[in-house]
Amino acid sequence: MGFGIPMVSTLPRPFPGVIPNVIALPYGRCPPFHMKASSWRSLLKLMARLSGTRMEPTMEAMAVVKTEMKLRIVVSFVKVHQSSSDWDTVLYMSIDHPVPPNAPTGWKYRNGDTNSLPWSYTLSQVPPFLRDGADAPLSKFYTIPCTNDMPYPTLPISFPNLATYLASALENSRDAMHDSSSSVRRLAKCIDQFYPNDRVGLDDAPERAGMRQRLKNLVGIGSKPQRDRNAEMYELVTPFVPDEYGR
After folding, report:
1. What is the pLDDT of residues 165-194, one digit of tens each?
2. What angle do CA 50, 79, 221 make, to 5 degrees?
3. How many other C-beta atoms can be found within 10 angstroms of the C-beta atom of residue 23?
């Protein structure tokens, strides 16, 4: 995790330090913060259990922006090697930035297109895995849109609440699976294709149980452990590598 370039490898690297309690996001001209995991499920699993970690604006951002700041998230899937069938999940997170009225092609940043990066990405160099577009052979990305049912999260936000938001984004995507005119369904299609076993846990709970209970089923909270705790912790921490900004 950090503001640098995600490290993609066929061999997962152990997490070398302590996951920070506070992740501070700058505003404006800055690369997005990223988190990487070996799968969508392992990413949500870790976030749901990090109740002491939150994401918030930097002091400098709060000095500039006097209104509520919203979180923008781009979900990226990166093939670990061109000859491999494994894909990593990378989350890119940044503070929402209003689109200037005179911005060229500004309309594409306002219409909820999941194939377009947020406008703030034009203020700095686009991360390498996002440069080839939303549907490249070795990388895909999905920009989570703002809807009436699921507005952008307000900062600060805890990791468990962020995990719930991501799980809701997937549910909304599944609801649009039969709408060929909507790009919202792309998230569910990517996850079903790259991680076919991830869907089982989320679908186990009945609809009336609510998203939080369905998320618990997905990440295994409250259920009887099925394997050695050391193996469980290895899955939780191995995919994450912070850099000097992830404090």
Report:
1. 999 999 999 998 888 888 999 999 999 999
2. 25
3. 21
CA distance 177 to 193: 13
CB 145 within 8 A of CB 72: no
Length of the chain: 247
Q: Write out pLDDT tens, residues 63-117.
A: 999 999 999 999 999 999 888 889 999 999 999 999 988 888 888 888 889 999 9
- From CA 29, how far away is CA 120, in angstroms rounded? 7
